[in-house]
Write a structure and sequence with these properties.
Elements (H helix, E strand, L loop, with lengths): L2 H9 L13 H15 L3 E4 L8 H4 L6 E4 L8 H13 L1 E2 H22 L6 E5 L3 E5 L6 H14 L7 H10 L5 H5 L4 H12 L8 H37 L9
Antiparallel strand pairs: 1-2, 2-3, 4-5
Helix pairs in contact: 1-2, 1-7, 2-5, 2-7, 2-10, 4-5, 5-10, 7-9
Length: 250
Amino acid sequence: MLIAEDLLLLSVDDETGKTAGVDNLGVRLAGALMADLAAANRTLVKGGPEAGATKEERKQALDAYVRVTNNDPTGHPALDAALQAVLATEGKAQAVVEAISKDAEENLLAGLAERGILEKKESKLFAMLPITRWPAADSAHETALRATLRSVLVDGAEPDERTATLISLLHGSGLIGGLVGKENRKAAEDRAEEIAGSEYGFATVATQVAIAATVATVAVVGAGVAAALILAASKDAEAAAAPAEPAPTA
């Protein structure tokens, strides 16, 4: 299983097959796929912050350079699609993350359904609008994954590199509360923040840049959305305050 697949499984409701309202899920999946490509020895990253860098220093990850060192297929369709996206975009990490994010969710969902982990269900809303849902078909892996994450976030177990990377990508997504329950949410979020800022999640430069670039890109995208909303609200206010035009005389 890819780190990106684990992240997506945690984002999809097992019963309804709907994706939870995750802040910039596509960008987070792209960061996970970058970490998966690094683990598969397909990419090399130059520049970017060092392990244990501060939040401010991690913003440098957007300027890190990502290139492909081995373009042999991995055999995993979603990971190979991400590899092709890197090949086409080789350059700054932010551009790479954004390129991978375009089809990341769709490719990963299709792969999980093909392997019998999710089930693809298509229907139509009001007999017109097509809707696709992805309920769980086999929850064994996700159940074990949730138990591992809970042991780290609630019980204080030490994470391995892979688990720490996943937790770093989950940090700030809004999914942690659902993993541990309301009573443990605050402590688990504090633990996730601790891990995200530690060397655990950054055992390799490529993994660190994947996480840091994801966080930074989420912030950039969020700021853009906020700016657009502010501009729209400003325009609405201006329109409302503008004097009405006189009615044409006969």
